[in-house]
Design goal:
With 410 residues, the protein is α/β, with parallel strands linked by helices. It has 3 domains: 134 residues, no CATH class; 186 residues, 3-Layer(aba) Sandwich (Rossmann fold); 50 residues. It is built from 16 helices and 13 strands. The chain has a 6-stranded parallel beta sheet, with helices on both faces. The chain has a 3-stranded parallel beta sheet with strand order 1-2-3. Helix 6 crosses helix 11 and helix 9 crosses helix 12. The chain is extended and about 115 Å long. The relative contact order is 0.11. This is Glycosyltransferase Family 1 protein.
Amino acid sequence: MLIIIDLLIVYSFTVFTSQHPIRSDPVIGCHVNMENESFYNRFICAIVQPLRLHWNFRDNLNYINARRAEIGVSKHYDFRERANTLFLTDSFFGFEVPAAWPPIHQEIGPILPDTFPSLSSDLDLFLSSHARTMYIAHGTFLHTTPKNYAILLQSALELINRNILDGVIWATVTFNESELPLTINLSNGEIIPTSNLLNNLHPHVYITKYAPQFAILSHENTKLFLSHGGISSSHESIYTATPMLVLPIAFDQAGNAERLELAGMALKLSKFDLKVDDIISKVVRLLSEESFKSNAKRLQVLAKYNSKRKYRGADLIEIMLNMAKYDGIINENGELEVNIETLLRSWITPDSRMGFFRGNYLDVFGVAVIIALVLIISFVYGFCKAIMIAFRKLSFKSRNSQIFPKNKNE
């Protein structure tokens, strides 16, 4: 149990693990990549926001430390920067903003199952007969407002009426169907009863409570995925090279949406300003601009190779379980206990034990700067002194020539 408590598996919250100021997260009001931000924004996101985050999570940190004390595990002061915790992150470079990590931080994503549910006969028939299908799903735990659902539904119908799409599959999951308007009014004046859509009476719309998402995304006729941007959905869309239209709702979804957009395979929507015209224009771009599909295929290559790393993740856990036998200590009852201080000694970089100044060689660089300044000041002083001496000699000669002028006859 001690090992499992001290082994933290982090999924997609960069803000909780990032030790690199260049990486941040919309969770704290910043961007996932701070490369092109102003000095003010970089200062706020590197200094101010992490302090606010630490303050807001102080109660959680105290609770965790209390639980750790109950079982004899030492407390820690920053939930993001522990030297003796193994971080396994469900992400990969290409999707994630690249940065160097210490050995105890291992990226093992994208974590995807080996097998997935297959298409039902109805879904298979629907996809086979609709060559330009958009799949809509917004996860299993979060949902947006009824107004936004109505806008999404109207947008889907407008896209079909304008022949931009010829099919829409919607997995409603947490969708509260009773909160929808009774009818959907289209721009061409057509009025469609919502009940017809929910009962799958529309020939080009298929609504189901649950759907085999990976199988749908894998189908060649699924051209676009309108998603909330959860990490699993993002990885599945990348793995199947399906361009995304992302409507983030909470947690890591805004950060995932930014990463997907920066990678060039997605466009974002705002849950606070959702509009039919905006959805339609972005769907048109995703379908018509080849760059979105080519970028999705580029990320697909990375995802397929990196998805094998989940087995390394399992191996890392096995390593920790086995190393505990050799790095453990015997208590007064003769039982083997995990020694947290030495459990990861083979992976922990020396700088974490040297302190901030020594670990970052600030003392060495500080002395080097002082020596350089002393040398520069000495050189400047000597140079100025030489100039002054030369100037004085010239002045002395000039005065002597005026006081004792040479005889012209001599």
